[in-house]
Amino acid sequence: MSSNQVTVIIPSRGMLPMLEQCLDSLGKSLGTAGVREQSTVAVVDNASHPPLPPKRIAAAGAELLRLDAHHSFAQANNLAARRWPAAYYLLLNNDLFLQPRTMGEMLGLMERIPQAGICGARLVFPDGSLQHVGVVFGPGAQGPYHLLRTEPSHLMPRVEREFQAVTGACMLIRHELWQTLDGLDQDYPFGLEDIDFCLRARQEGWRIFCCQGSESLHFESMTPGRVKMDVSSRKLFLSRWQGRYTIDG
To answer: Which of 47, 38, 126 is nearest to 86 (CA)?
Structure first.
C-alpha cells in the first residue's frame, strides 16, 4: 500500500463548474485536517462528453482517471481505489461542498474509535434543511431512507451517533474494511451500493457513525439519469436485504 493517508474518489460525468467548486472546498477541508500533502484526490471522468479537461483537473490539485465507456458508481470507485491505495478512502459526490472542519472531524472519529470502519457526515441542502444525518430503515418495501430529511438543520440535534448505514455521497472508509469487502458491489446500476456496503461491513463486525459537528452542502442527484437508475438498484437491494436489517425508522 502507498503512504497516502487518504484517497478521495470523485466520479463525475460532466458538471465541470460544480466539480471545480467541489475540489476547491475539498482542498480546504483536507488542509484544515492537516492531511492535504498526504492525500490523493482522484477524479474519475465517467465518459463525460466532452471529456473533462486534464489541465483544469490538475490545476485543481487532482489526478484524473478517464473512462471512455460509462461505468456504474461502484465500478468507478473500485477502479480508483485500486489505482491509488491509502489508509482511508473518502467517497465524495461531485455536487457536494465540504465544510472546512468536516474532514478533520471524520478522521478524528476514526482515530478515536478503532472499531469504526465507516464514517459519514452531516449534509444540508442549499436552503439549510437536512439532506443527511444518517440512514435508517423502514418496514416492508420502504427500506432505507435518510433520517430527518428536509427538517431545519438548526433545530435538529448534533450528537454523534451510530447507524446501520450512512450515505456514500460523503463516506470515509478504512482500507482494511475496503479490502475485506473487495470494494463496492458492482451488481448495482447506480444507487444503494453504499447502503449494501454498510450492511456488509456490519456483518464483519465494523461500526458505522455519522459526524454532526459541521454541515457540508449537498445539492443531491445532479447526475443525468440518476433517478431512473435508482429503480433497478432498489429492487436488487430489497431482494438481498429485506428482512435482514433492523427496523429503526
So the answer is: 38
With beta carbons less than 8 A apart as the criterion, state whether 132 and 166 touch. Answer: yes
Written as nine digits, the cell of 239 is 431482494
Cα 23 from Cα 111, distance rounded (Å):
25
Residue pLDDT, tens place only, 126-139: 999 999 999 999 99
DSSP 34: T
* Residue (of 150, 142, 146) closest to 170 by Cα position: 146
The answer to whether the Cα torsion of 164, 177, 171, 190 is positive or negative is negative
Ordered by where they begin, the domains of the chain are 6-241 (3.90.550.60)
Please state the three-class secondary structure of 84-130 as a single string.
Answer: CCCCEEEEECCCEECCCCHHHHHHHHHHHCCCEEEEEEEEECCCCEE
Integer Cα distance of 233 and 193 in angstroms: 8
pTM: 0.95
**Quick one: which of 14, 65, 21 has its CA closest to 40?**
65
**In angstroms, rounded to a whole number, what is the distance separating the alpha carbons of residues 248 and 144?**
10
Pairwise CA distance, residues 236 & 188, whole Å: 7
Q: Smallest Cα–Cα separation from 12: which of 230, 226, 194?
A: 226
Give the three-state DSSP class for 194: helix
The C-alpha R_g of the chain, in whole angstroms, comes to: 17
Q: Strands 207-218 and 116-124, how do they pair?
A: parallel
pLDDT tens digits along 213-245: 999 999 986 555 555 567 899 999 999 999 999
